Task: inverse folding
């Protein structure tokens, strides 16, 4: 069966199905290009049923077993040093520089100054914690992650809204994701499959697992997988090796190269002015297989290649 995978790869941003964005940018005249992909992948706002941080205590009151998992789905190491993590009232964390996430790896951020010295994040993954007193709310909250160029992604539940000091002068990438406002103790919400799937409550991992360094903390039938990949892998029908934008004679020329294509229907181009927050369809294989350019309007533009 032929299909079109809803994978959005930005010159400005790369994001699978919603919210991946970049480590930095390159400039070609007035065209800005970004590369690589970071996404919010799993959130546990009520950890009061499992000792997820492996400190020997189920944190029913201090919320130290709550966490946010951030993943790098690209094929290159991304330094998130200087990036900001925030909820609806508080800047949780400004990641120290460097904080480098390897390809296909993650960083797990625990809340409330949790002791993470005995938590094993998995091979190649990172773990850290926010200062004491900072926690996730079980209702009406939001998580935002902003890079050093002022681009941010966010996931909210209920009526959570990011504070003005986080969003002022910043640009939301894509659309804010809304997940369930009815948290279940010890059960995270996550993408399934990891990286690219839609959000849902994390399935139960049947059996006993031990994510502690000293192998003394066991969890029976946990409903989260901090630092672990869970769900089915998804192979993409297109292997994209390059995507760039250059200005030629007053027009933007988008160039991309694929290494392989399997039952790919075609490509679509989306454009957004850097001063705006939304992307509009510029051209599509459905109506114009040649994808001949529309005149560039000047200024700094961001482009998505979708296939």
Result:
């Amino acid at each position: 069966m032929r299909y079109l995978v809803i994978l959005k790869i930005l010159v400005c941003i790369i994001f699978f199905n919603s919210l991946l964005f970049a480590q930095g940018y390159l400039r070609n005249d007035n065209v800005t290009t970004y590369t690589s992909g970071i996404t919010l992948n799993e959130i546990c706002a009520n950890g009061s049923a499992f000792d997820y941080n492996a400190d020997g205590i189920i944190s029913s009151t201090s919320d130290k077993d709550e966490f946010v998992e951030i993943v790098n789905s690209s094929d290159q190491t991304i330094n998130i040093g200087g990036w900001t993590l925030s909820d609806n009232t508080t800047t949780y964390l400004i990641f120290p520089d460097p904080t480098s996430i390897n390809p296909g790896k993650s960083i797990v951020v625990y809340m409330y100054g949790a002791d993470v010295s005995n938590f094993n994040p998995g091979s190649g993954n990172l773990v850290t914690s926010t200062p004491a007193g900072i926690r996730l709310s079980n209702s009406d909250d939001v998580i935002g992650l902003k890079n050093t160029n002022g681009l941010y992604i966010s996931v909210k539940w209920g009526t959570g809204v990011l504070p003005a000091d986080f969003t002022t002068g910043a640009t939301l990438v894509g659309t804010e994701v809304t997940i369930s406002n009815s948290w279940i103790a010890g059960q995270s919400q996550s993408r399934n499959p990891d990286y690219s799937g839609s959000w849902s409550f994390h399935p139960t991992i049947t059996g006993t697992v031990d994510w502690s360094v000293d192998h003394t903390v066991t969890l029976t039938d946990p409903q989260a997988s901090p630092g672990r990949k869970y769900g089915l892998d998804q192979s993409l029908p297109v292997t994209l090796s390059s995507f760039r934008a250059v200005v030629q004679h007053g027009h933007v020329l988008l160039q991309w190269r694929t290494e392989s294509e399997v039952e790919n229907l075609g490509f679509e181009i989306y454009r957004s002015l850097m001063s705006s927050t939304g992307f509009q369809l510029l051209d599509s294989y459905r109506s114009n297989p040649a994808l001949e350019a529309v005149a560039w309007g000047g200024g700094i533009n961001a482009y998505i290649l979708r296939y």
